[in-house]
Design brief:
Layout lengths: L1 E5 L2 E5 L1 H12 L6 H21 L4 E7 L2 E6 L7 H27 L9 H14 L7 H14 L1 H30 L4 H19 L1 H19 L3 E8 L4 H5 L6 E8 L5 E6 H11 L5 H8 L2
Parallel strand pairs: 2-3, 5-6
Antiparallel strand pairs: 1-2, 3-4, 6-7
Helix pairs in contact: 1-7, 2-3, 2-4, 3-4, 3-5, 5-6, 6-7, 6-8
């Protein structure tokens, strides 16, 4: 749900966050909302500031139950290092807040006691978001790192499956507390539902992210003036949809088409493979495409 627009950036609130806020108020924890909101704002502002410093245009910010998502106009997959840096900015901002708080407390300028909630919220937001599972910041970091060798499609699916596993673990923790201690932690059940929904959503968008990366390579090459080349050996009977899954970010690919005896049948560039996708569909074998390109 869109609630505001600041400096051209749309601010959206997840329905899961609204449900969590309602649950906090109902269960008597509404007084912590101010501290939570402040920490959230700093966390997300750090993502936005880092993105702007890296020359990225921020399209919107979506506030989620335990963090947020910054949607960037220029796709990150073209430079995984930027995605890692932007993702780290949020948790690092929470750590800076903690260091500042403890520094002021050490100087005696503020009292440590009343600020315990502030400390706990920062620790939770920073620590939880660094877990290597989508849609958390840690998941985006691990996806960007893996994408450089695994490719975007495989890396996204691996990080999203980690999100599913994390959702199951959080749900199990809530169920354990209910069954053995008769204590109901509504936040754990809501968090598990949010993680599961978001992880499956990220998994469904893996192919779309891959195609966007391929589309923006021309823009990146024109902007930066150069791009590293990556050679891949591919068996002639592999379909194009499986070939492009092996493409990694920020690299231009040349494909050596091989037969079962490791004899080279010919070479195709990434551009020829993409044109083949558009002209002949995703299921054509790369060997057949090679013959069409070189009759």
């Amino acid at each position: 749900m869109r609630i505001a627009s600041i400096f051209g950036v749309d601010i959206r609130v997840s329905r899961f966050l609204l449900v969590l806020v309602a649950a906090l108020i109902i269960t008597g924890y509404g007084g912590k909302l101010t501290a939570v909101f402040l920490v959230f704002c700093v966390h997300e502002a750090a993502h936005v500031i880092m993105a702007r410093l890296l020359g990225k245009r921020v399209k919107e910010i979506e506030l989620l139950p335990f963090g947020g998502a910054v949607h960037i106009q220029s796709i990150f997959e073209l430079n995984p290092a930027h995605e890692i840096t932007i993702s780290l900015a949020g948790p690092l901002a929470n750590i800076v807040l903690l260091l500042g708080y403890f520094g002021l407390a050490k100087l005696g300028w503020i009292s440590e006691g009343p600020g315990q909630d502030f400390v706990n919220i920062n620790l939770m937001l920073a620590g939880f978001n660094l877990l290597p599972a989508l849609p958390l910041d840690g998941g985006r970091i691990i996806r960007a790192a893996l994408a450089q060798t695994w490719g975007i499609d495989r890396a996204t699916k691996a990080a999203s499956w980690a999100g599913v596993v994390l959702a199951v673990l959080v749900f199990t923790a809530g169920l354990y507390s209910l069954l053995f201690y008769r204590v109901v932690y509504y936040s754990l059940f809501m968090l598990s539902g949010f993680l599961l929904y978001s992880a499956l959503k990220e998994r469904r968008t893996a192919a779309y992210i891959l195609l966007r990366d391929i589309t923006y390579k021309k823009e990146s090459l024109l902007k930066e003036g150069s791009m590293s080349i990556r050679d891949i050996a591919i068996l002639y009977n592999l379909q194009l949809k499986d070939v492009v899954k092996r493409f990694v970010p920020h690299r231009y690919h040349y494909i050596q088409v091989m037969d079962e005896q490791f004899r080279e049948l010919g070479e195709l560039s990434e551009s020829q493979v993409i044109n083949g996708l558009l002209d002949h569909g995703a299921h054509i074998q790369i060997g057949r495409l090679l013959k069409k390109m070189n009759p």
